[in-house]
Amino acid sequence: MHIAITGNIGAGKTTLTKLLAKHYKWTPQFEDVDTNPYLNDFYTDMEKWSFNLQIYFLGSRFRQIKEIRESGMDIIQDRTIYEDAYIFADNLHDMNLLSARDYKNYLSLFELMKEHVQAPDLLIYLRGSVPVLVNQIYKRGRDYESSISIDYLSRLNEKYENWIQSYDEGKLLIIDVDKVNFVDKEEDLGLVIENIDAEINGLF
After folding, report:
1. CATH superfamily placement of domain 2-201
2. Residue 204 in this model has a pLDDT that exceeds 60
């Protein structure tokens, strides 16, 4: 089984991935942020490093999906390959931080990879308002995220909502992190697990 968690920066994807991996005994697959060689440079100069960063993430995510399918294990994945193209690359292009030439090149590679990608059995979308995302980002205190602007987060939120509304690759569960505090409240985590159980049982 392949479960994936999606959502904006600060929505709680990594935390929920860890909690669900522990509860269900699933193997977690995390986004490559700690060893990503472009992330710090990107947040310092987005225009210069946007293409490099997106290509790195695309390759990393494709490798993850290949490993997930070949492993035969139950995997829960922090973020998906779709977000790289439909959210981040698209947003950078809209903001003129990714040139039309680079964007076209990027999409060509993504479409090629997509032909060999199977959607997750269940996609969990963590929906959060910008104030909640900002608070979460501040609490975790990653240096390279300190320069993320409100405008950037707002743009990403719009992209996420548009993508989720048209998502038809498989089963989808939406969790509103403004209302559900699965980090600090056990009953909220229990509610999330109940909803996931209901979705998973419908897969068989």
Report:
1. P-loop containing nucleotide triphosphate hydrolases (3.40.50.300)
2. no
